[in-house]
Specification:
By secondary structure, this protein is an alpha+beta fold. The chain is built from six helices and four strands. The protein has a four-stranded antiparallel beta sheet, covered by helices on one side. The longest helix is centred in the middle third of the chain and has 14 residues. The chain is elongated. The two termini are about 30 Å apart. The N terminus is likely disordered.
Length: about 180
Amino acid sequence: MDVTSQSLRCEERYKVSDPQKLQQVTLDEVDQKLLGLLSNNSRRTNQSLSEALGLAPSTCLARLKALKESGVIKRFTVEVAPEAMGLPLQALVSVRLRPGARHLMNAFGNELRDLPEIKQFFVLGGADDFLIHITAKNTEHIRQFVLDHLSSNPAVAGTQTNLVFEHGHGTAFGL
C-alpha cells in the first residue's frame, strides 16, 4: 500500500462533523503513542514524531492533521509558570450555587472566563457546582477575589478555598 492511500484512509477514519460522534472515534496504538509524544511536548517536529513512531513523515503528518480535524486534538498550548507572571500563589475554590440559581450556571461560567485570576474551572456534579483554579499574588489577593467575584454574587450560596502547595501533571489516558 502506498503512503498516499494510507494517508487518505487515515483522514477518512477520523472525520467527525458532529461533536457528539467524537466519542466514537477509535484511536489505534500509533494514534495513542502520537498523542502521548505530543502531550509531553507539543512543539516536537513532525520529523521527530515520525522517527519516534517509525512512520514516514507524510503518514505522521496525515495522522496529526486527521486528529486535529476530528477534534481529538483540541488545541496546542503553552504552560506558563504563574510565578513568572507575578502570581506565585494558587488556590482551588469550590463554589456552591443557591438551589434557585441553578439556571444561572452558564452565565456564572461565562463570567469566570473573563477574570484574569482564573487559570481553569470545572463545572461539577455533586455537592459543589464549580471548582475554580486561580492564581494570585498573595493570600490577600485570593481573599479579595473571593469577596469581589464569588461571595458577593447573589447566585453563590457558599465557597471553600484551598491553597495549592504543589501542582503536578498525570499521564491521562495512559499516554
